[in-house]
Amino acid sequence: MRTVSKDTVTQSFLDYISEDSDERLKFVMEKLAHHLHDFVRETNLTHDEWRKGLELLFAAGEISTPERNEFVLFSDVLGLSSLVDMVNSSEDGTPSSVLGPFHVLGAPDVPVGGDLIKDNVGDKIVVGGRVLTTDGKPIKGAHLEIWQTADNGLYSGQDEQQEEYNFRARMTTDADGRYLFSTVRPAPYTVPDDGPVGELLRATGRHPWRPSHLHFIVTAEGQKTLVTEVFPSDDPYLDEDAVFGVREKLIMEYEKRESTDGLPDDLAIKGELDGTFYVVDFDFVLSAA
Amino acid sequence: MRTVSKDTVTQSFLDYISEDSDERLKFVMEKLAHHLHDFVRETNLTHDEWRKGLELLFAAGEISTPERNEFVLFSDVLGLSSLVDMVNSSEDGTPSSVLGPFHVLGAPDVPVGGDLIKDNVGDKIVVGGRVLTTDGKPIKGAHLEIWQTADNGLYSGQDEQQEEYNFRARMTTDADGRYLFSTVRPAPYTVPDDGPVGELLRATGRHPWRPSHLHFIVTAEGQKTLVTEVFPSDDPYLDEDAVFGVREKLIMEYEKRESTDGLPDDLAIKGELDGTFYVVDFDFVLSAA
């Protein structure tokens, strides 16, 4: 160690790690040190730049709460959260996508065909489809957790005008593996940009917008849990999601209908659908656990 | 972006960065994204590991204050702080080393030959030498800031038993470029290990000890500022500094003396030196600005 240099410091770091340490931890720390050290060597990072990076992390610590975690947000806008989703995503099922910070436990059970619109305003949509195995077999009794923004781009919990579990539900698929609910079109929104993440976005000329989306967590016995989001095909931010959550297979088409068309049998919606509404047909494929 | 995959996400990230952004910032962000993304891809980082990393950062935010900055400490124990020092260090001067968190402004001016021992306990040492240009020319009027721990391994500011500027001084070199002071041998100490950095050290079987050292900031007109540390050659932690600060050229030899030997002319020490003491001769070489 008394001979440590910029070329030997990585090996010195590795030599410090006890051989008794967990093998996976050793591997992850080795890769982390290699990449962080190479980053400094390849950029010849200056003291000012190093201090700036540490200031951003310190500021992230100051602004973070369990509800607004700026470190998660850094991970999101750097593409890391999304990349972790992708390296862990099944090849053969529906792709996963970012969980985000707005999931809460305790949403009410809503039956298949249930209504989330209630007295909310916005474009009415009917979202339905099936939960399937990779062999295409419907899964009865799969559980979906569903959450989304209101028409104003805010989630319940962020918005005092909304009831506690507004646009949040838990649903169990029927014998045909079907889920179905009426809701309103969610709205695009910005990630919080009043902290150090916002500073980074502005410095690199980036905007903080996410395309609108519906969040889902889909679970079923014997299958891998799927955490994902589904995006409307006409969203203006579809090609520039600030947190890199969009996947081709997660894009849903909105089919326009008028209520005078009458509802098809598979839209056994309990809510009222007067005038124009949109229909989304989206299946979730769960890979085996 | 709707086709983002684990192989294309890095390019998507780069495409987001505005062409108008600062060139250096673009370069640094490109390298950062490449290395962070490769880290995730090469480890197939799991969601649990990703969450653990974010938890450590969140915990670092919670424990950090301006005085105890856990992010700096993470940078230190990962070898990053030291590596930034090394990539920015002059090839031809005395190597730089970590500033650490214990530097304070406002230390008293002490004349060449001054005494820092006062009524402190510990092995007495006399530290002196010259401040030189890379051509070996002495620099008159160079300023040294000096700080170190007491014999108990604590800095003034950490230890209520010590006066405000105990073992802290500012000195200006004489016409021969000389500095000289009497002090006590500093002591090894541990970096704070009661937070997430300590958790990481324990998980990888590492100890938190630093070898004892004297801190110096050396400045002179027309020369680059030198921030460094000097380590005694007999310190038990010399080969295993938790923050990778030791360089071969920063090791000082302690020469044992008895006061009955008489003090040589170049040790014009103003303090009393009864019995056994040690002498350190260490020159600082500043490269041109």
Summary of the model, kept short:
2 copies of one chain form a homodimer. The first copy, chain A, is of the alpha/beta class.
Describe this protein's structure.
Two copies of one chain form a homodimer. With 289 residues, chain A is α/β, with parallel strands linked by helices. The first copy, chain A, folds into two domains: 1-45, no CATH class; 82-286, Protocatechuate 3,4-Dioxygenase, subunit A (Sandwich). The first copy, chain A, contains six helices and 13 strands. In chain A, strands 1, 2, 5, 11, 12 and 13 form a six-stranded mixed β-sheet that branches. Chain A has a five-stranded mixed β-sheet with strand order 4-3-8-9-10, with no helix packed on it. A two-stranded antiparallel ribbon of chain A has the order 6-7. The relative contact order of chain A is 0.17. At the A-B interface, helix 1, helix 2, helix 3, helix 4 and helix 5 of A face helix 1, helix 2, helix 3, helix 4 and helix 5 of B.
Write the topology of this structure.
Two copies of one chain form a homodimer.
Chain A: H1 9-16, H2 23-43, H3 47-63, H4 70-77, H5 80-87, E1 114-115, E2 124-133, E3 143-148, E4 168-172, E5 178-184, E6 189-190, H6 196-203, E7 209-210, E8 214-219, E9 226-232, E10 251-252, E11 255-258, E12 276-281, E13 284-286
Parallel strand pairs in A: 1-5, 2-12, 2-13, 9-10
Antiparallel strand pairs in A: 2-5, 3-4, 3-8, 6-7, 8-9, 11-12
Helix pairs in contact in A: 1-2
